[in-house]
Amino acid sequence: MRNTHIVAGAILAAAVLALTSTTGAAQEKKKPATKADISKARSDTTFNREIFSGSESRIAAMNNVNIDCTSGPVPSLRIVTPPKNGQHRLEEIAYLVDRPAGNSRANCNGKPVTAVGVFYKSNADYVGQDNIVIDVDFKSGTVRRYNFKITVR
Q1: Do 132 and 79 touch, CB atoms closer than 8 A?
Q2: Are residues 69 and 119 in the same domain?
Q3: Which residue from 4, 24, 89, 150 has the least number of CB within 10 angstroms?
Q4: Cα–Cα distance between 152 and 132 in angstroms, integer?
């Protein structure tokens, strides 16, 4: 995760530098970076989910885990793009840590932490694609964007 933040920060810095750099011997005044410029420079994370039509399913559990395996600050979530063919809900839940091998918090796997569960339920009898985009503030100076591509069967 740390490497992802470093790469995202480098991309953002390059975008800002490109917008504020000088050309030749003469300095020209450039516009400051806009929200759109920063959004383009930020790396989004996309997840694919498959669920049955009409069934509610948890599609994510956003959480922070401290080095001692206790819960960190509970993230704040903002829905950027709500689903068009269903409903979502957010709920604070107890979540068992499940990090991949090699993750700095993998030793915490199986320990409970507080998380914000993201739940999705399609409209009745809907079958097809849906999408939800969420910005997550991890309360550590990092806001990440998550795009959930949902296949409803």
Answers
A1: yes
A2: yes
A3: 24
A4: 13
**pLDDT tens digits, residue range 87-109?**
999 999 999 999 999 999 999 99
Q: Is the pLDDT of residue 8 over 80?
A: no
Considering the domain architecture, whether residues 21 and 6 belong to the same structural domain is answered as yes
Q: What is the CATH number of the domain that holds 142?
A: 2.60.40
Please report the DSSP string for 68-103 in residue order.
TSSB-PPPEEEEEE--SSEEEEEEEEEEE--PPTTS
How many domains does the chain divide into?
2
**Which residue's structure tokens are 């750099």?**
21
Query: Tokens representing 115?
Result: 């998380």
Burial code (b: 16+ CB inside 10 Å, e: under 16) for 26-44 equals eeeeeeebeeebeeebbee
Residue with tokens 């985009």: 133
User: For residue 39, what are the domain limits?
Assistant: 1-43
pTM: 0.71
On whether the CB atoms of residues 80 and 144 are closer than 8 A, the answer is no
- pLDDT value of position 30: 47
Q: Is the same domain home to 54 and 18?
A: no
